[in-house]
Design the sequence.
């Protein structure tokens, strides 16, 4: 599909030239990706966005709870086919995410199911609204994947990048293999903001694959893949771009040489 939609030029005599678009795809997952999927995506330049890290627990848990309750309500009230269009309409109206000028349709005549499911959806929306200030930031590094970034202090991050849209950052890695997470923060002011993210599982497994090489491989990943991360963010009717440049700590000098 990826290659098909990008083949937008036709070579026929007398035919009108057509504009060509270059589409880039991203797949999101709440529980990671298999090694086969990661290898395939890397080969075909498809970005995998992994939301399985601890930073996204606040989003995954309410979804998991709501889904379980909705399926139970469907089973308890003998609803043969789940009213997906109705649920989508309820959520979009409650979250105010209806597409402008596009009327939404969808209903269900299963009254008892509707009453039970409506309570679940109301609770789900309330759980999300507790994190109304949260924002999924997508970072684009010099690598064939996208980084979902979570800010501990969203206002602090935005305040800093508005003043310094291009600045140097530091990177730190915590944990081992698939459970490892990263954080970045401005080099000039480490307390200004913190962004957390995860790298693709196969990269983390490579880093931790040989214990004595883990430190050097971490440095290699920082320099090769994370040396520059661009974040695009909608700002009113326009788009703002922020450039985060990784700069390592200076080598400490001592009488015995450098370290």
Sequence:
């Amino acid at each position: 599909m990826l290659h098909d939609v990008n083949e937008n030029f036709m070579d026929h005599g007398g035919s009108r030239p057509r504009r060509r678009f270059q589409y880039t795809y991203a797949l999101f997952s709440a529980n990671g990706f298999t090694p086969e999927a990661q290898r395939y995506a890397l080969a075909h330049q498809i970005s995998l966005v992994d939301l399985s890290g601890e930073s996204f627990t606040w989003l995954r848990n309410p979804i998991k709870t709501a889904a379980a309750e909705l399926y139970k309500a469907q089973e308890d009230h003998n609803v043969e086919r789940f009213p997906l269009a109705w649920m989508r309409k309820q959520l979009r109206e409650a979250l105010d995410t209806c597409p402008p000028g596009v009327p939404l349709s969808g209903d269900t005549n299963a009254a008892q199911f509707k009453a039970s499911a409506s309570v679940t959806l109301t609770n789900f929306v309330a759980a999300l609204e507790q994190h109304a200030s949260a924002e999924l930031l997508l970072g684009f590094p010099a690598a064939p994947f996208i980084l979902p970034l979570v800010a501990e202090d969203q206002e602090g991050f935005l305040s800093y990048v508005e003043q310094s849209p291009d600045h140097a950052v530091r990177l730190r890695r915590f944990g081992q293999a698939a459970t490892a997470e990263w954080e970045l923060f401005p080099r000039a002011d480490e307390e200004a903001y913190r962004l957390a993210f995860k790298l693709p599982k196969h990269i983390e497994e490579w880093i931790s694959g040989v214990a004595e090489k883990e430190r050097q491989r971490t440095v290699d990943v920082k320099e090769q893949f994370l040396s520059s991360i661009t974040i695009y963010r909608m700002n009113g009717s326009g788009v703002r771009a922020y450039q985060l440049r990784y700069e390592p700590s200076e080598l400490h000098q001592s009488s015995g040489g450098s370290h």
About this structure: The helical segments are 2-6, 35-43, 57-76, 84-95, 111-129, 154-163, 201-208, 214-224. Confidence is low (pLDDT under 50) at residues 251-259. The longest strand covers residues 166-174. The two ends are 51 Å apart (CA to CA).
